[in-house]
Amino acid sequence: MKKKDIFLLLSVIGAAVIILSVFAIFRVFGDGDTVTVSIDGEILTELPLNEDTEYRIESDSGYNLLVIKDGKAYISEASCPDKICVKTGAADEITSIVCLPNKVVVSIEKD
Amino acid sequence: MKKQRILGIISLICCICAVLPSCAVLKKRYSETYLDYFDTVTSFTVYGVTEKKSDAANKLLKDELEKYHRLFDIYNTYNGIANIKTINDNAGISPVAVDKELIEFLEYSVYVYGFTSGYVNIAMGSVLSIWHSFREKAVNEPENAELPNIADLRKADLHTDINNIVINKEKSEVYIKDVKTSIDVGAVAKGYAAQRIADKLTDEGYGNFVLSLGGNIVTRGKKENRASWQAAIEDPTDTSKTLCSLSLTDKALVTSGSYQRYYTVNGERYHHIINPRTLMPENEYLSVSVICEDSALADVLSTALFNMPIEDGAKLVSETDGAEAMWVSTSGEKIYSEKFESYIVS
């Protein structure tokens, strides 16, 4: 009887481990980080961080040029007077790029 | 017996699989950014709550941000609210009945005048509004950027006596005696609001969050894996880089800096932190960061230290319980108060 109990216990643990591994694997094999662009709180678009591209963000008050290159997302050009968004450099999981006059937020979401 | 066993095993597996992912859901963090308050960026990250609770936290935060934004506004009035602009509009005319919260805030601001030997003076509106209009003009027409006339600044300075602000606590009224005096709360408002809002969130049961109200950072509790919240200080000479990261538990961090809000005349920068003694922006430092338990005090100190001679500033910090500071001079040199470096993690 003892052997059977141990066997059952191990099977239960084994099954749980397999199911959890499935969850973990799906995360590891995910799509990669996402660059989220929003204007005035509304999401405009989501772009993959691992695909180089240039995206012109048009807002009511002007524009911001978003560049995604070599796994970095930054604003290269903007219509705002202060260019704080340009000077911020690349966004990462803790630092978002904000252009207050154009109400633009560029943030990185980890997969 | 076999059937029971099988059923038992299946239920156990189901329980484990149900519980573990829910744990993952619970230990999540939710972040939001707000662009409509205090003419700056507010960001908020709350940890260790469900999505529903984080929505409630953000609703509370948004309401509180709007409340203080309107109460401390010196440029707009709002239906049904007597705010700072209302008081300013009635200078030399009549007392204004205001909410108890505004009385408390103004009393705090008057106290702060003495505490900083006048380096933080909310009665400086007449001088600051001149600088504000010249800066606004320069932002819209950089080719026509000009400096205000020092004689005009000195004339305006005749109306910056803190005693011109008369606070009647019992009647909950504020009266500005001098028609040319106006209140400008830029040096205190964000830090004070951040503190009040953080306390409100804590009262409502949110124990783990980081709030940044235009760079006035308040941390409460911890984040994932019981780790401390961390905040980085921007390099004022290159804002794509950071000077250091600080580990902060139940502390506030405020930085006053000259490198964002400024305008240029003949190649020289003129920023927004005006020295009450010289009536000009000073260029001794690029930024001053203060760590303190209270965000209002941190905001006040960072503004005061920006203009105070370093010996006086260092003395004020050492006399203030729990306060630490870092000055970044124009040459890039970093000066620390006694225990500031103990917060640095990288």
Spatial order of strands in the largest sheet of chain B: 1-2-6-7-10-13-14-15
Count up the helices of chain A: 2
Output the radius of gyration of chain A: 22 Å
Helix content of chain B: 25-40%
**Biggest sheet layout of chain B:** 8 strands, antiparallel
Largest sheet of chain A: 4 strands, antiparallel
- Residue-averaged pLDDT of chain A: 88
Strand order of the largest sheet of chain A: 2-1-7-6
- Work out the strand percent of chain A: 35-45%
Distance N terminus to C terminus of chain A? 46 Å
Uncertain segments of chain A are: none
Q: pLDDT under 50 segments of chain B (min length 5)?
A: none
Strand content of the residues of chain B, in percent?
A: 15-25%
Structural commentary:
- The complex is a heterodimer of chains A (111) and B (346).
- Chain A is an alpha+beta fold.
- In chain A, 28% of the residues lie in helices and 40% in strands.
- Chain A has two helices and seven strands; from the N terminus they run H-E-E-E-E-E-H-E-E.
- In chain A, the strands form two sheets. Chain A has a four-stranded antiparallel sheet with strand order 2-1-7-6. A three-stranded antiparallel sheet of chain A has the order 3-4-5.
- The longest helix of chain A is centred in the N-terminal third of the chain and has 27 residues, at 2-28.
- The model of chain A has no long low-confidence stretch (mean pLDDT 88).
- Chain B is globular and about 95 Å long.
- The A-B interface holds A 8, 11-12, 15-16, 19-20, 23, 40-41, 74, 81-82, 84, 87-90, 94-96, 98, 100, 103, 105, 107 and B 5, 9, 12-13, 16-17, 20-21, 31, 33, 35, 39-41, 43, 139-140, 142, 232, 239-241, 260-261.
